[in-house]
Amino acid sequence: MRTIDDFDFENKKALIRVDFNVPLDSEFHVTDTSRIEAAKPSILKVLEDGGSAILMSHLGRPKGKNNPEMSLAHICEKVSEIIGVQVKFAKDSVGDEAGKAASSLENGEVLLLENLRFHPEEESGDEAFAKQLAALGDIYINDAFGTAHRAHASTTIIAKFFTDRKCFGYLLAKEIKAIEKVMQTGEKPVTAILGGAKVSSKITIIENILDKVDHLIIGGGMTYTFVKAQGGSVGDSICEDDKMELALEILKQAEAKGVQVHLPVDVLAADAFENAANTQFVSVGSIPKGWQGLDAGPQTLENFKEVILGSKTILWNGPVGVFEMENFAKGTISVGNAIDEATQNGAFSLVGGGDSVAAVKQFGFQNKVSYVSTGGGAMLESLEVRTLPVIAAIFD
Ligand code: AMP
What we know:
- The structure is a single chain.
- By secondary structure, this protein is α/β, with parallel strands linked by helices.
- Helices cover about 35% and strands about 15% of the residues.
- The protein has 14 helices and 17 strands.
- The protein has helices at about 35-50, 75-85, 95-105, 120-125, 125-135, 170-185, 205-210, 225-230, 245-255, 300-310, 330-345, 355-360, 375-385, 390-395; strands at about 15, 50-55, 90, 110-115, 140, 165-170, 190-195, 215-220, 235, 260, 265-270, 280-285, 285, 290-295, 315, 350, 370.
- The strands form four sheets. Strands 3-4-2-1-5-6 form a six-stranded parallel β-sheet.
- β1 (about 15), α1 (about 35-50) and β2 (about 50-55) form a beta-alpha-beta unit.
- α10 runs parallel beside α11.
- The chain is elongated, with a radius of gyration of 23 Å.
- Adenosine monophosphate binds next to β14 and α12.
């Protein structure tokens, strides 16, 4: 795997695909700078080598049209502040404007191009557009994990114009290594904790992961489809009746593959889907009508903890309860604490995929696990055994 460390950027223009798709408030101020900060090490490496950096990104979903609200000009000052260099801005990502700005760029300087997605050719993966972008730089760096599962012009198509002058940035390289560490080279026992709302959104991950793990912990809303399929009463809990057969099939496959599946045995049930609802702990297969399971119960959490503490490699995707409501967050916090302890004892822990990252941040676990993946969809797809288009393009 070629990374940015394999190149010397002296007198070179590095064309870097970053993910600056950051949230903006109504006055166009950046409200979460983590994606900009995440790209900083790669940008600094180029500058410190004595080269210049041309940054390209998308912002929002302008659907191929110029939309001033989604202009990257809004974030130029913030990027300058974080990088520590006054960043120049080109009002277009291709054409004269971009060409002139790129060719006049001096070593030590940084140029930010306008939103790539103002051109429909970006998302359609247009080769001519990719070629125009490619003409702006000498070496191509991809450091945008969030779009690693998309075959867009700037993320993958462009790579073919840089035969041996392309590499992964630090962020992307770290993401790839972390996923590899779980999915390919993880020290045993390997445990996956899958939660979240629905079986249907996790099914491809579950199927793929059964070949890699020793233990599979299932929690959250997914639980009830499994429990009902096995003949339990789940009351008004979230349940996908049309996925019950699939749930039984997964359990059968797991058994055949020697994977130990751990489902909740008790749950915190509520009489409404709200924080102030009345609650009671009940056994998972006997939830009364009018009640729904919204968090894991104490015995379940004990069981989960024991499995987690006995693991050397841990993957966590999806909360085990409705953590957004304080009264149903205890299970997710408890799982996080157990992963923290296991990590302190030497396990490698990876958290990733949409809501688990939100949960991890909300409860301050981000520094307690080994790695938090920032690429929601990309992370999930790489757990679904797909070789991400970006990775294929750079390895090509
Ligand atoms: P996902 O995006 O599939 O990881 O799902 C995350 C969502 O699942 C979160 O918003 C949780 O509130 C929700 N969730 C977790 N446990 C439950 C449950 N027992 N009932 C309903 N929703 C749940």
